[in-house]
Design a protein that fits this description.
six-stranded mixed sheet; alpha/beta; 22% strand; 27% helix; globular; 129 residues
């Protein structure tokens, strides 16, 4: 058994399969999920695990080349967390509707227990060289 790091076997497997430019979505519990998407649902109860906890764990596990958030998240806690946790990755914003349109293209969607509006981010996988 792993001593540290991500313990959920579905999440670590999904992250290990990411290639350069593949995307992983960190989603709050209210984001509509597209049919057929590969989803790792971590939500236990409302607020657990938090967006921040999942963002930190995933950010430590993969190289993040860039991040997309919703325009509506600008100036909110989710935007500040993305900037703090993934400080080396450029952040772009798109409308919340455009963000939702990008979900079917994600290689992996990770659902958190977060219930704060717009606590969603699309992380583009980079390479470690």
């Amino acid at each position: 058994m792993l001593k540290t790091g991500i313990l959920n076997p579905h999440l670590i497997d999904g992250l290990a399969r990411l290639g350069h430019t593949d995307t992983v979505v960190i989603a709050d519990c209210g984001l509509p999920l597209p049919a057929g998407a590969r989803v790792v649902d971590l939500a236990l109860v409302r607020g657990v695990p938090t967006f921040e906890q999942v963002l930190r764990a995933v950010g430590e596990a993969i190289v993040v080349e860039s991040v997309t958030i919703a325009d509506e998240a600008r100036g909110t806690a989710p935007e500040r967390l993305v900037a703090e946790v993934l400080s080396d990755a450029p952040v772009q914003s798109v409308s919340h509707e455009r963000l939702k349109q990008q979900l079917p293209h994600a290689k992996l969607i990770v659902r958190t227990g977060e219930a704060t509006p717009y606590s969603n981010a699309i992380l583009r996988s980079g390479v470690d060289f």
